[in-house]
Amino acid sequence: MTVIRISKCLLMLSVAFFCTLVVFNNLTDYDSNFQFVRHVLQMDSTFPGNRGMWRAINSLVVHHVAYGLVILWEALTAATAWWGGLRLFRHRRGSPQAFARAKAPSIAALTMGISLWFVGFIAVGGEWYLMWQSKTWNGQEAAFRLVVVLGIVLLYVVSPESQHE
């Protein structure tokens, strides 16, 4: 059992814990982050007179559906991360091949998280709905931090363990 393998397990379980807290907060304080989604989709705090306002969505139903899909994706990411972290832990003493195979759910969870915060928030929210123009409802910095953290963990998890530990 190597320190690196334990480290990978703990980082995956940390990601799982974080994603679980995100889901918990979104469910127990639904309205706070719902308002974020609603304002981004309505584009009501973007630059006045911008030519992208035709993209705005003013349907409350669509806002709730979009937020529900975000929470669902976060929950699936959390569950997959728990599965991945626990699977790594169960295989921590296994052969290099067994431990490498055990990485699949972790890789999936990290990819899911990166996809959500990069595609959903940076690309769609930031560029399509021009969230970058808003001083109040701009989540790009937070999303970027998550993409970077998850990306670093992904690179670390997929890296092979040293033969000389």
Note the overall shape: elongated
Taking Cα atoms only, what radius of gyration do you get, to the nearest Å?
19 Å
Task: Determine the fraction of residues in helical runs and give it as a percent range.
Answer: over 70%
By DSSP, the count of extended strands is: 0
Instruction: Kindly report how far apart the N and C termini lie.
Output: 9 Å
The sequence of SSEs as H and E is HHHHHH
Structural class, judged by helices and strands? mainly alpha
Instruction: Give the overall pLDDT as a whole number.
Output: 95
Q: Report the major sheet.
A: none
Distinct helical segment count: 6
Number of domains: 1
Strand residues, percent: under 5%
Report low-confidence residues grouped into runs of 5 or more.
none
Describe this structure in words.
This protein has one domain (3-158). The mean pLDDT is 95. The longest helix is centred in the middle third of the chain and has 31 residues, at 60-90. Helix 2 packs across helix 3 (60-90) and helix 5 runs antiparallel to helix 6 (140-158). It has six helices and no strands. The chain is elongated and about 60 Å long. It has 165 residues and is an all-alpha fold.
List keywords for this structure.
73% helix; 165 residues; 6 helices; mainly alpha
